[in-house]
Amino acid sequence: MPSLKTRERLSEVRYEIRGELARRARELEAQGRTLVKLNIGNPGAFGFRAPEHLQRAIADRIANTDPYTHQQGLPVAREAIADFHRKRGTPNASPERVFVGNGVSELIDLSLRALLNPGDEVLLPSPDYPLWSAATILNDGRPVYYRCLPENGFLPDPDEIAKLVSPRTRAIVLINPNNPTGASYPRELLERIVAIAAKHHLLLMSDEIYDEILYDDATFQPLAPLAGDLPCLSFGGLSKVHRACGWRVGWAVLSGDPLASGDFHHAMDLLGALRLCANVPGQFAIEQALHGVDTIRPLTAPGGRLHATRQALIDCCAGSEHLSLVAPQGALYGFPAVVGDAAEGFDDHAFALEMLEHEDVLIVPGSSFNVPFRNHFRVTLLPEAPVLREVFARIERVLGRRAETAAKRRAAVA
Q: What is the number of helices (H) and of strands (E) in the chain?
């Protein structure tokens, strides 16, 4: 029989976080190999648990979770989200403008589907979380990347963003704090980006899933209060700050002038209705998550587990002649660069495959995050600090061999 054809645009989509290397990792595990898998920011896989008061909130209401709920989410959950955003200064935050989804991932796809016509453009950061690129492509849009360069602390240049706007541009996407770099965007930078969106009547889309995961003196500035009447969609959820990835609970808050975003609101509501509703049990934890005990700060503050692992990353890179690091200010990742002799002829995918095959470590090549350079890789900060130190000892071993080979090659040519 002829092979079943698939959608042609899928050939443009990359998601290496769970792609070819992850499939190879499963094959090696089936052979009995024990791997250290640092490819996914999945707290539960590293021994973290969702806070007990969130678990109790679901257990106490489990008898009420059988029916479908409203397509935008449980009223009590949407009120809790709206109240949280009102306290942040989000304009026109109300339960009617909150959408609860099966994780932020679903809401990214749904919102871009509501926005884009074929050929429309979305301005995305480079590096980006690749789901944003994939969702843009699969909804017939075109990703246009603005650079967030390591020499600028992985912060974008608003002047470059302004130059990339075209008649087909529909939205500017921000990921703050950033995945994969951990950059946290200052207020002044965000204000300049808001001004660009206002000038060209663009939708602002701010992925803020890591909003409370911050280290040392880093701060988080939400975008919606700065956007004012400008339409802005702010994304959050339980996955990262509350360590409940498997519950698949995310939300998006549409702020700004309701008249300016009325048609978009109706489109989001229609698409939400077509999938009936989001997972109901997890929604009963939202109120306690947003208005209950802060359980993330003890992990990110000095003495906390995430803080210790981040420090291990910083120390390992500082002690290596082969690595350079912009220390992450937030989120759950490090994005080191390979430098010096080890970077000669470096290919990040080949390096990741070598780490997997010979050192039993699964990392993500930096180019998977839609950057033009090939000398970075991403690791998660979720393992215990000693585990990460051991991983970087293995990385150092591989890079040391590469550097030695490069030095011998140059000596032979000389």
A: 14, 14
DSSP, collapsed to helix, strand or coil, labels residue 340 as helix
- The domains of the chain are located at 8-49+298-413, 52-291
251 bridge partner residues: 100, 236
End-to-end Cα spacing for the chain? 59
Cα 410 to its chain centre, rounded Å, is 40
Which string of DSSP letters, residue by residue, matches 107-168? HHHHHHHHH--TT-EEEEEES--HHHHHHHHHTT-EEEEEEB-GGGTT-B-HHHHHHH--TT
Predicted confidence band of residue 206 (pLDDT cuts 50, 70, 90):
very high
Question: What gap in Å lies between CA 93 and CA 85, rounded to an integer?
Answer: 6
What dotted CATH number matches 52-291? 3.40.640.10
3-state secondary structure of 169: strand
pLDDT score of 92 more than 80: yes
Assigned token pair, 333: 């990742």
- The tokens for 106 are 């679903």
